[in-house]
Amino acid sequence: MHYLWAFLVGGAFCAVGQLLIDYTKLTPARILVAYVVIGVILGACGVYKPLIDFAGGGATVPLTGFGSLLADGVKKAVDESGFLGIFMGGLTSSAAGICAALVFGFLAALCFKSHGKN
Known about the structure:
Layout: H1 2-23, H2 28-45, H3 48-55, H4 57-60, H5 63-81, H6 85-111
Helix pairs in contact: 2-5, 5-6
């Protein structure tokens, strides 16, 4: 049942993004940024955590999950370090994901030859 809920919630996020691309003049980059900001807001308010508990990967894998991760990291760092936690909490909590993206991007660049869109 967990797989079904993860699929439905993650699919709903993707469907909303596709509808925004198809029926608005928003660019994909703006939609992606909006997803991260919405995740930060919902994570800071404590609304996103129950969705993560319910849908698992369907809520943590999309960019809203990344935004929620940033908000949680900032909250924890502010509790531990005070004002400076605002600046270091988000990077500390998301460091593993950012590092993985950089490493796998580098490996992909080594394996494949880039070329223009001619």
